[in-house]
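## Example record

The block below lists the input lines for one assembly entry, exactly as stored, with component labels intact.
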Amino acid sequence: MTQERIFAKVGEKDVTRAIVSEFLTQFNEYVESDCLIIGGGPSGLIAGRELAMHGRRVLIVERNNYLGGGFWIGGYLMNKVTFRHPAEEVLDELGVPYKESIPGLFVADGPHATSKLIAAACDAGVKFAQMTVFDDLVLREENQVCGAVINWTPIQALPREITCVDPVAMETRVVIDCTGHDACCVKKLEERGLFKTKGFGAMWVEASEDLVVEHTGLVHAGLIVAGMAVATTYGLPRMGPTFGAMLLSGKRAAEAAEKQLQG
Amino acid sequence: MKKAGMKKYSHLYYEGTDSTLNICELASYMRGKTGMDVDMRGNVIPQDKDTQDFLAQEFAMARVINPQKEELNTAPLSAEIGYESRLLLHQKHSGLLYDGFCLQKIFRSILPGGEHNLAHAHIIITSRLFGTFEDNRYHARVAVFGAPSIISLTGLIEAPAKPREFYLRKQFGQDIPGLLKEFKDRLLDYNDSRIIEVLKGYLMQSFFYHVSGNPFCDDPHCRLYNAHWQEEVIFAQIGGEYEFCQRHEQGNLHHRDTEARRE
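Predicted structure tokens for the full assembly:
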């Protein structure tokens, strides 16, 4: 008598081949994309989702193995995230439950909001390269940003003296810098003397959310800045544990990218 | 009979303030107190596009990027100028910090050329927050006196310190809207009905600066008291035993008589 198995009979080699072939097919396809988003936090995810919903081929590069950035946890390591009106409208769009704390201020569960946002980006067709670190920008004539140089995140942990692992380059039509306060892409322009970031000011929740959204957009030919990278780029006040501006900045960045793609 | 000197005029303007601000009431108060010819000139920002483009760049350059450094935004980015243009167009509250003396210089450049003299006191009420650099950092201010004098509505709320207990309890995580409600008698907040009354005192400070070079008084009951705490502001402007100390009341009277003789 044969015992019935729950799972299909599959060998190790089949599992490995499935991973490799799927990964390489996707990687090969996204070596050239419409939009490359550096940073898989809330602004990057929402920007990616919006663009993918317009049929754009979008790849999000994330240095960690998890997506969502700081969205999982609010202030002081507590996993409730806050949003000021009108950002709850984005939560409605994503199907994230929330409650009104005081008029105009909404609170949601960090894990619920983040997982819904990631799922929404995936559903829209966004693809991801996790454990992948942004290394540099690809610049062409007149310093137009045309892509990004990337490498595996663990490479960073190897001592420079004993390793030389070259990165690879991805071509794209527009890059969105969603790397938070680091503003990694904009900083690469600064290293070459093409730009001067202004750092970020003291915390001022009331003012900074509006300012971040208002300043989101094209910062250099082929490069859009979104999320908290906007604060670093323009020297705007820091925001504290409120996320509405991240979502709206992501939307604004997608609009700016769409304009570039159509132009 | 003693001959009266040159007739004096005061001109009130606003910039970026909400429409609920009753400039009429302010003008009428100042007229009554000083006997001056006070007129209301509306929005100080000219409506022609070329001037607005020029001003957008100037305002972007007057931004304070780091409150710890006396460095301004000498090379503004296009998004910063674009943001300033939108502010001029929509007359919104901005949330940025500007250098008070630079703002004064910008406003001076758009005032009527024939009125740059001691006969004309120009007073601009703005929603922009500004500061002056002293003791190694920028300090937010309610007013910068001179030609023109500028008074900040945002500065009324943000510049004078709130009660010490407010900051202590905020530090321990108490919610800010609750604190604002609890301390409402001891501080001013946005859309506060007392602001119009408080503004009258700052208008009179501008007036005394114009006629005597000294806008302030040491008497905490007098509207000219140079308050550093919100409680002192409220006391001097609303809660004092009298509107003006004897010396400044006589100053008002003397000026009214002088103006009447000129009629």
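The mean pLDDT of chain B is 90. The two ends of chain B are 15 Å apart (CA to CA).
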